[in-house]
């Protein structure tokens, strides 16, 4: 298939087609220009730029998550180094996930609810 044949096929996919619904006229024109210039077909297209942005966001979130886990682990080590302090550990977990998540987890796993948690739930009643 020649470059021109490929370009003609892409141009024919413009308008009211499933292809055009995803890529759009601007991306199709960019693909045609890329073929003409012997560039990678996806270069400069909106979907490619979105993918790059999402990959960057994903990498940043991964780093942030790893740092959060590291920090949580270090805080637990500090607390345990001072001697087992159940309240300090509970406060650390509550600060990270919130009391709502703790109560849901305990309920799901058939763990006892503390008086503090029960008081919290009662305080949320209308």
From TrEMBL:
Source organism, top-level taxon: Bacteria
Protein's recorded name: Uncharacterized protein
